[in-house]
Amino acid sequence: MRRPFIAGNWKMHLDRGGAVALAAGIARRAAEFPSVDLAVCPPFVYLDAVGAAIAGSSLGLGAQNMCAEPQGAFTGEISAAMLTNVGCKYVILGHSERRAIYKESNADVNRKLLAALAAQLTPIVCVGELLSEREAGRTKEVVAEQFAGSFAGVSAEQMVRCVIAYEPVWAIGTGKVATPEQAEEVHRDLRGLIEVRYNSGIADQIRIQYGGSVKPDNAKSLLSQPNIDGALVGGASLKVDDFLGIAAGAQS
Ligand code: 13P
User: Fold this and answer.
1) What is the β-pairing status of strands 163-166 and 60-63?
2) Which of 31, 175, 184, 232 is buried most, with the most CB atoms less than 10 Å from its CB?
3) Which atom of ligand 1 is nearest to the CA of 214?
4) pLDDT (tens digit, 9 = 90+) per residue, 3-54?
């Protein structure tokens, strides 16, 4: 049985006070959702303060990106070891905004993924098609290519430590959520890819989150699909009640 996992991707929002208040507000109520894993992913500069604000709670801490290199002359970059050092358990990799705006390739995502695994972080690896790709009937192919490239060289032992987030790009920040059936179809395909590459036991263990305009009022219908194991939430993760409303949709 896969434990539902709801993570908030705060993107480049909030100031220090707002980040601490949001994290503390979620942490205070996290125990109301004992059957769900919860995490927040603030901007790098607030990780330390948010980590302190949620200490002692069941709420996990994650980052939104990292550098594939372990250390050295990489001005402006943050390593996996720095993330674990400030208490991160998770790191989001290959978000569509990083792929589209910062031109991260599957090979870049793969290097970061291997570095994150080596540092004992749990990577949340994002995949998802553009609207034009969906309209051209290429969703399955695009997601399969992202999966193959991003997870190249990942062993079975490493794979079970990963989380995948299916985020159709056309549903991110648009209010246009994928229907539960559209999302479930891709999640099922992804689990099938894991089964072919590894085996069914491993495919059954991997949590696949859905992301893209998840809100409290659509969370339950998405999360009740057999292959949707959680959500990666953008906009609705910036309000305590909205984020926990989504968590409520995952609570059994
Ligand atoms: P929204 O929930 O704002 O659509 O963002 C989704 C997302 O990109 C999470 O990583």
Assistant:
1) unpaired
2) 232
3) 2
4) 999 999 999 999 999 999 999 999 999 999 999 999 999 999 999 999 999 9
Nearest CA to ligand 1 atom 2: 234
Asked if 95 is an active-site residue, the reply is yes
Phi, psi of 205, rounded to the nearest 5 degrees? -85, -25
List Cα–Cα distances, 249 to 55, 216, 218, 229, in angstroms: 25, 7, 9, 11
CA 120 – ligand 1 centroid, Å: 25
Q: Cβ distance 216 to 249 under 8 Å?
A: yes
Pocket test for ligand 1, best of 14, 213, 238 (most atoms within 8 A of CB): 213
Give the DSSP letter of residue 33: -
Whole-angstrom Cα Rg for the chain: 17
Angle, helix 139-150 to helix 106-118, in steps of 10 degrees:
40
- Interatomic CA distance for residues 120 and 131, integer angstroms: 34
Domain annotation for the chain: domains and CATH numbers: 5-251 (3.20.20.70)
Distance CA 141, CA 128 (A): 10
Given this model, what pLDDT does residue 1 score?
Answer: 81
Please enumerate in sequence order all residues whose Cβ is within 8 A of that of 157, keeping only pairs 6 or more positions apart, or say none: none
- Max CA-CA distance within the chain? 48
Q: Which helix (H) or strand (E) holds 55?
A: none
What tens digit of pLDDT does each residue of 180-194 get? 999 999 999 999 999
In the numeric block, which tokens belong to residue 211? 């992301």
CA distance 175 to 17: 27
